[in-house]
Write a structure and sequence with these properties.
The protein is of the alpha+beta class. It folds into two domains: 3-32; 58-202, Roll (Pnp Oxidase, Chain A), CATH 2.30.110.10. Helix content is 30%, strand content 36%. The protein has helices spanning 3-32, 64-71, 111-118, 149-158, 162-165; strands at 35-40, 47-53, 56-58, 77-82, 88-93, 95-98, 101-106, 121-125, 131-143, 177-190, 199-202. Strands 4, 5, 6, 7, 8, 9, 10 and 11 form an eight-stranded antiparallel β-sheet that branches. The chain has a three-stranded antiparallel β-sheet with strand order 1-2-3, with no helix packed on it. Mean pLDDT is 82; it is low at 1-16 and 32-54.
Length: 203
């Protein structure tokens, strides 16, 4: 095909190909872009934007006092740390909330303490998989337990059972460091209302 007819056909083909490629690029971007949807907020009739990322649909109706109140009574916490090379490590720990911050204790010889010495970024979460609370933050080294007597007193008040006292830093010199967790984000949801209960907090 040649002449004007050939030019018109070639132009049409190029236009169609460019349009198809453009649609493919937009589709690829859409697959990787978080989707924002709107739905009525229960009991109010008002609409709120929700960010859908993976399987989570989260709004922002969570404040730090709510998070601290959830952390305070927990007996155990799971602490996730990572080495300088990025190797993850998780361990159960005890702790106490004081002045709105979670304080944990351990020994400097442990893997978690060695990790936090080179990489302070941590995750703390409660053990219950049906009532989830996950806190991301950074661990601040407060030094030897004797340097933070208020934290020692909070730990003794919380773990007051005689069987627990032997494992506190006030009784066991093995525990030689206290950390304060400075939170950056928190995420919570309940299994019985997975979509409706999702809440996020950001510093």
């Amino acid at each position: 095909m040649c002449g004007r007819a050939g030019l018109a056909a070639a132009t049409a083909t190029a236009t169609a190909t460019a349009g198809l490629n453009g649609r493919r690029r937009r589709a690829r971007r859409a697959r990787h872009r978080p989707r924002t949807t709107h739905r009525a907020r229960p009991g109010t009739g008002t609409s709120r934007a929700y960010l859908t990322c993976d399987y989570l649909r989260v709004n922002s109706e969570l404040d730090w006092p709510d998070v601290a109140a959830r952390l305070a009574p927990a007996r155990n916490y799971w602490l996730v740390t990572a080495s300088a090379a990025g190797a993850p490590h998780t361990a159960p720990v005890w702790g106490a909330v004081l002045d709105g911050a979670l304080h944990l204790f351990t020994a400097r010889s442990t893997a978690k303490a060695r990790n936090m010495a080179v990489n302070p970024h941590v995750i703390v979460h409660l053990p219950d998989p049906a009532d989830v609370l996950i806190v991301h933050g950074a661990a601040t080294d407060l030094g030897h337990p004797t340097q933070v007597p208020a934290v020692l007193a909070a730990l003794e008040a919380k773990y007051h059972d005689p069987a627990d006292r032997a494992y506190l830093p006030s009784a066991d010199p093995f525990y030689d460091v206290i950390y304060a967790i400075r939170p950056t984000t928190a995420l919570a949801w309940r299994l019985d209302d997975f979509t409706g209960s999702q809440r996020r907090w950001r510093a």
